[in-house]
Amino acid sequence: MRRKPNPDQRRRELCDTAIRLLADEGVKGVSHLKVDRKADVPDGTTSFYFRTRSALLQAVAIRISELDLKDLTAAARTQSSPAAATADQPSALATLVMRSARGARLVRTKARYELALQAVRDPLLDEAFRSYRDQFHALIRDVVMQLRPAEDDPDQALADRQAYVVMMFISGVMQASASGDRRIRSAEELDALISGIVAGVGSSAALRK
């Protein structure tokens, strides 16, 4: 006889199923019954664990953030390692972004953007994504600082501006990838574009002085 999953495991499985539904059908395609049918569980299972549709979507947002943060933590650890500063390899940021356009991570990317639109009007959904956004920005800023010339007293305001512009660019790349745009084909190519952005924003700031 197959053992029943424990409640936490069941919630994760239902959330993972809802993530696939979000990617395939958008927010309007997610309901308790559809999750039940796609997960091949008895009708009413999803509503037992998540009483309302809002509770289901919030749980899915938290699940996406947990998976994203796991990837981000690994990327940040790679980026901060001594080997990262000397090895002739793409940045952990570029590698992470390119991976987000393939396989299960692409499904998650699509689902994240679907929920991000809802989060504009839902503070609880927005809060579920906050840690991911903060850590993603920290990783981007670390890459930016490595691309800047060594300075005794680095311009922190400029670094923040460069990180912001790079983050907007990366968000656009990920959204385009979720829509099927594959014009950026490698992490190395993405790194070259990021380097150009950092240098361009720095040059623009220097001209204004």
TrEMBL record:
UniProt key word Ligase: no
UniProt keyword annotations, A-Z: DNA-binding
Chain ranges of the HTH tetR-type domain: 8-68
Pfam families per the UniProt record, alphabetical: TetR_C_31
Plastid listed as a keyword: no
DNA-binding region(s), residue ranges: 31-50
Molecular functions per Gene Ontology: DNA binding
Protein name: TetR family transcriptional regulator
